[in-house]
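Quick one:
INPUT:
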């Protein structure tokens, strides 16, 4: 077989790399919709109603990516995934992106062939108990039975916490979130553990929400965010910069109501963000008004947060760490320039 010249070989490699580089975005555009992996049902974050209409914080993130690509936030389909199913579904290509209250960890970021595109919600694991259990601290749960979802960092953190505090416990393990919550509500265990945001959401679904309380301890760091497959930098950039655009828009005061008006702003940061100056959208395979489309479709980060899980929602969650860095939090959008 004739040897291939070095320039030709390099060209072939670079050509193949370029083809793989844009595969997911091209595939999404070709089929005409985004397939987004979501929770099977977590109020405030991702849940379908009886008619199959999805709402929630993570759902709006999926819609933001669809808006960035198509200029239409409705061009998305949702695949409900359990914690056990979620990574396999993404690895296999069943979904294009996973936006499902998933914790960024080293092993997930390095050994599963996946890549986290940012942190859209800073969370931490806690415990919920019935008020009549008579405890006010997680340190009083020695010997308790605790409902926990398997295949999650929650299960691992639970073991670490009890081991570190030299306490015994009885794990009551389920694969699906709704099974875990139902078991707790029916009295099969003394406590329920998951991310604190999830506890506040779950409490709303209990038979008697007022009978339950979330204990004060936060036992872990749970940075939650969108996940994509490794090896497709263009797609990674689309998802990552959609997240940053939502944060930058909030910081710059660009909202769903004023985005068209803000296109005439004299602020150079706003002009770059909204595609009036520069070709930043084209650089990642999108139109230059991609951020305008995002904000028109779903609003900025603060608007998404407030309507789904914020203090004016049924969950009544304070921004806390998820406030912008300018407001005492740690959410921070990278500059478009």
């Amino acid at each position: 077989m004739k040897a291939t010249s070095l320039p030709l070989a390099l060209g072939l490699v670079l050509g193949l790399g370029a083809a793989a580089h844009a595969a997911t975005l091209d595939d999404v555009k070709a089929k005409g919709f985004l397939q987004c992996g979501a929770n099977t049902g977590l109020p405030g974050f991702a849940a379908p109603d009886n008619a199959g209409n999805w709402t929630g914080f993570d759902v709006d993130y999926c819609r933001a990516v669809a808006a960035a690509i198509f200029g239409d936030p409705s061009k998305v389909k949702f695949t409900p995934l359990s914690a056990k199913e979620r990574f396999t579904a993404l690895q296999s290509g069943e979904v294009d992106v996973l936006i499902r209250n998933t914790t960024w960890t080293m092993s997930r970021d390095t050994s599963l062939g996946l890549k986290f595109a940012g942190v859209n919600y800073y969370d931490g694991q806690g415990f919920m108990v019935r008020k009549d259990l008579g405890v006010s601290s997680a340190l009083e749960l020695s010997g308790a039975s605790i409902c926990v979802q398997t295949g999650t960092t929650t299960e691992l953190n639970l073991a670490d916490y009890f081991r570190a505090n030299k306490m015994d416990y009885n794990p009551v393990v389920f694969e699906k979130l709704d099974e875990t919550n139902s078991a707790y509500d029916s009295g099969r265990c003394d406590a329920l553990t998951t991310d604190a945001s999830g506890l506040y959401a779950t409490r709303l679904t209990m038979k008697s929400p007022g009978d339950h309380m979330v204990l004060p301890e936060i036992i872990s760091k749970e940075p939650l965010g969108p996940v994509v497959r490794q090896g497709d930098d263009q797609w990674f950039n689309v998802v990552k910069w959609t997240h940053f655009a939502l944060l930058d828009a909030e910081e710059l005061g660009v909202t769903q109501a004023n985005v068209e008006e803000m296109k005439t702003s004299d602020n150079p940061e706003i002009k770059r963000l909204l595609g009036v100056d520069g070709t930043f959208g084209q650089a990642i395979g999108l139109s230059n008004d991609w951020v305008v489309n995002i904000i028109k479709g779903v609003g900025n980060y603060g608007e998404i947060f407030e309507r789904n899980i914020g203090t004016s929602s049924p969950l009544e969650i304070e921004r806390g760490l998820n406030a912008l860095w300018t407001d005492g939090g740690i959410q921070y959008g990278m500059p478009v320039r």
